[in-house]
Amino acid sequence: MDESPAADLHLHTTASDGTLTVAELPAAARRGGVDWIAVTDHDRVHDDLAKPVTTHAGVTIIRGIELRVETDHQRLDLLGYGVDPTVELTAELDRLQADRIERARRIIDRVERETGVDLALTPQPGVGRPHIAHALAESDAPYSYGEAFEELIGNDGPCYVARKITTVDRGIDLLRESCRLVGLAHPLRYDDPERALEVTAELDAVERYYPYGRPISDAERDRVDNAIEQYDLLATGGSDAHEKELGRAGPPASAFARFRWRFAR
Predict the structure, then answer these.
(1) Helices 129-137 & 87-115, crossing angle to 10 degrees?
(2) What's this model's pTM, rounded to 2 decimal places?
């Protein structure tokens, strides 16, 4: 059995599709039993975190990012830790945010035509499908949050619109130039975990401690551990919190000590 998390290195805030503000992070971290966290909003560097590492009310906060990238066979999520954005990364994030807003407008238009309701939602930077699902669930339409994805805006739904995302090679280059460490998020969530793990040959870390919401087999865990050994990767992890509960997953003390040492170099 894994030890209790010593840090939560994957969480989202109101800068993307989470519900926590920066002001709420210290109390949420303490409730979750961790005093190191990483803010990894989707395709955004949080404006309210002034430096790659800051301390708020006794909690150390790493300024990070979760960047979705496109490979030849699937889409992956990269995690950058200790972001100090280059001009090139900032330009790419600006492009991605503009694409997110335009995509959200198109999805909202389709949902409103499909359901006949007015979602009263104006897309802002950081917008994602969860915002649209929440707005639909709060409307007069007969859809819950989950049903919005299952029946309308999921990848195979009639209201789905694809994003124009960054290629994997460019994404890795941009994060390497801007971040202290770069890792692969939740490797066992992808359609082809083996090919996803091949990308870690170019990275520093991979998430081993992640709440998948289902039992993880020994064979699956071994696949991640083999990549860690083969490529000398840091074993990271976190709750991937979009709500306010932190510390559900993360590296134990031994793994986090190695992360801190490499992060500080």
Answers:
(1) 30
(2) 0.90
